[in-house]
Design a protein that fits this description.
This protein has about 210 residues and is an alpha+beta fold. About 25% of the residues lie in helices and about 40% in strands. It has a single domain, classed as Hypothetical Protein Pfu-838710-001, CATH 2.40.320.
Length: about 210
């Protein structure tokens, strides 16, 4: 069985992720248990825009470095969520692509399209005008680790300026993730995605974060 490498592209992984204000020392345990990883993955920062849809909890859509990336939920197994890359595209995007891929992923009514292609700013203006969509600014400061051959991170995240902490472990191998949760003492925390978390922070879901 081939071992995972941090930063590699692989078949869809099973993921545990939780969000809150802190995890009672699990962050330190993860750092201490980690094997060395490449220096370029020690700390990464990014500014992203997530597109929230009131009608959709299955497709996770974000914009980073002027590229739109959609992941789709596949299944939950042993309490872990599996997500699969659906599409990735650069701006400008064609009207045909908005019709065939983007708005079907949002599962909302298609706005009237009057142009053949749209820039990122034009697309975000379209999102702003749509009653069932909302663009949310997300800044991430991510610290990478590898524990039990699973790709892990602790990140400090600003969601429209609200600061939260997230911790995660992911792998194609479910037993490795479950062992990491046990070793890091994360077994009792709720597994929630970025999509669900952002909806809680902006008030679309009436439920607190995990901690």
């Amino acid at each position: 069985m081939a071992k995972m490498k941090v930063g590699e592209i692989s078949k869809p992984r099973f993921e545990f992720r939780s969000f809150g204000q802190g995890f009672d020392g699990a962050e330190d345990r993860m750092a201490r248990l980690s094997v060395p990883i490449p220096e370029k993955l020690w700390v990464r920062e990014s500014d992203e825009i997530y597109i929230m849809s009131r009608a959709n909890d299955k497709n996770n859509t974000k914009i980073r470095n002027e590229k739109m990336d959609i992941k789709t939920y596949v299944q939950t197994k042993d309490g872990l969520e599996q997500w699969n890359p659906l599409t990735k595209t650069e701006f400008p995007v064609s009207a045909d692509f908005l019709k065939s891929d983007i708005f079907p992923a949002f599962q909302v009514d298609m706005p009237e399209l009057e142009k053949s292609e749209y820039s990122m700013d034009e697309f975000l203006a379209m999102v702003k005008e749509h009653p069932d969509l909302q663009a949310v600014s997300v800044f991430k400061e991510r610290y990478g680790y590898m524990v039990n051959d699973t790709i892990c991170e602790v990140a400090f995240v600003l969601i429209n300026g609200a600061e939260v902490v997230t911790i995660n472990s992911e792998s194609t191998e479910i037993p490795d993730v479950l062992k990491t949760l046990k070793d890091c003492k994360l077994e009792d925390y709720e597994n929630i995605s970025y999509l669900q978390t952002i909806k809680r922070v902006i008030g679309w879901i009436d439920k607190p974060l995990a901690s």
